[in-house]
Specification:
Length: about 70
């Protein structure tokens, strides 16, 4: 039984090492696949927008918002 225990520890160590390696690879791939956005929308003095102007701004940026965030 003592001999089998050493083999079992080795198997557990190998299994845990493999799982951690896979998690690291997946995390690194996820970081690489998400690139920075090409544009960042800035609206000067957004508090002053109201009514038709606010709607016009929203309609103009809506396709970009949809493309980057949905």
């Amino acid at each position: 039984m003592v001999e089998g225990g050493s083999s079992m520890v080795s198997r557990w160590f190998t299994c845990i090492t493999a799982v951690i390696s896979v998690l690291i690879i997946v995390a690194l791939h996820a970081q690489e696949s998400v690139g920075p956005t090409a544009t960042h929308m800035m609206i000067a003095d957004p508090a002053s927008l109201s009514g038709a102007r606010a709607e016009a701004v929203y309609q103009s940026i809506r396709p970009t918002l949809r493309r980057h965030f949905i």
